[in-house]
Design brief:
Blueprint lengths: L5 E5 L3 H12 L3 E6 L10 E4 L2 E4 L8 H9 L5 H4 L2 E3 L4 E4 L5 E4 L3 H12 L1 H26 L12 H9 L6 H6 L5 H6 L4 H4 L11 H10 L2 E3 L6 H13 L2 E4 L3 E7 L2 E7 L4 E3 L2 E4 L3 H8 L17 E9 L9 E4 L5 H8 L9 E4 L11 E9 L8 H18 L10 E4 L1 H6 L32 E3 L10 H17 L2
Parallel strand pairs: 1-2, 1-13, 2-9, 6-15, 13-19
Antiparallel strand pairs: 3-4, 5-8, 6-7, 10-11, 11-12, 14-17, 14-18, 15-16, 16-17
Length: 486
Amino acid sequence: MARDDQVVVVGAGLGGLAAAIRLAAAGRDVTVVEAADGPGGCCGTATLGAYRFDTGPSVLTMPDVLADTFGAAGEELDRWLPLRRLDPYYRFRYHDGSVLDVVAGEEAMAERVRDLSGPAEAARYLRFRRRLQQIFELEWPLFIDRDMTRLRALARPYALTRLATLGGFRRLDRLVRAHLTDERLIRAHTFQALYLGLSPRKALGIYASVAHMDTVGGVFFPRDGGMHAIPQAMAAVAEKTGAVIRYGVRATEVEADGSGVTAVRLDTGERTRARHVVVACDLPAAHAGLLPGAAADWRLWRPRFSPSCLVLHFGLDRRLPGQAHHTLHLGEQWASTFAALEAGRPQPDPSLLVTYPTPGAAPAGHATLTVLEPTANLRGGLDWERLTPRLEARLLRRLERLGYGDLGMAPRLTIDPPGWHRRGHSAGTPFALDHRFTQTAWLRPSGRARRVPGLHFAGMYTAPGVGVPPVLISGRLAAERVLEGR
């Protein structure tokens, strides 16, 4: 028989590690099994010769959530993972040649808006910024930082009414356009809908909170080691706190009987006893074979996946003076690009996210450059063997026109939707399910299996959803349910 304190965590990504740290700190006997040869999950890394690339998220917001994870083990974030605030957070480059840097500070940012759009728009921006703050402060405890495994979690009539009054249940595009008039500013505060897998015309206004996290709260980056340094530090803290992490070991079956979870079988032939299991890997794939049939969740019967992305990682033999860490090149077309994604087609005029991290990922005098273009996932049935080379060639031409030079001969690592699928992402998208209303909060796949006591879930498929802070929160919520015996 498994002891009540035995917990197995499946997956050493950010969600699994967040759960493991808290459970080990609470005295539970924690084993983490990870199929890869190191931590990270979606927050991965790859090398190409002397160049190293982050293959997962490049944007870190809400560092207090990360600090709280380390603090659960009595550790200081700065000791394990010093961060720096990016300046600017983002640089927007528009098709007409204009530029907007998103910087820290209300007045400093208002001055940038004034230079771009005039004093009247700057005044409107300040009012809009305060509205973003109001939505965020109301939404954080209601939808983001809250366990959504019970429907009554939404039973907050006053808060829901107040959120509706602020525009949280309007469409994101309409909410922003009610405050701003310059199309460039509107796009700077609605492009975040891409993180949600939706058009700004379909995303709810509650997701203006993402714009608040990005443009007001700030964007951060590890001082050393890139984004992959985050799971590396978390894994080290988990092990220091007492968790055992086994790399290169795949969980093949979660066993359960009438009382709940009993054990996890591994591809080594071992059977690891457990009274609680936290599954923190790709959830549709887990339901396809890892989990008992009683764990089925009706919310995954007809999953709506986010679009995917084509990512090109370049090794450069030169530095790029004056290049921002994050540059968004926004295309001239807007509505039609989202319409193409919704139809499962590549965008005709895609907006590009270009990431230019610190020099530590490349030899002296060299640099790395990562370019992300949103594109369709695998559900569209496209012929990617033919399409990927065409999109690559188009992207290389676009980058040359944007001033990055001829990158055709630079060392290059390409990840397309089939590549994401080979890395373990259902539907070939690293962004999981989209955030339409029917896949939000309680309607997102549950964080626990009601008919299998002791079986919990963490990661971007569960609430609160996609992004580094939400995934860390999902791990915390899973750990709290285990400790409460739910």
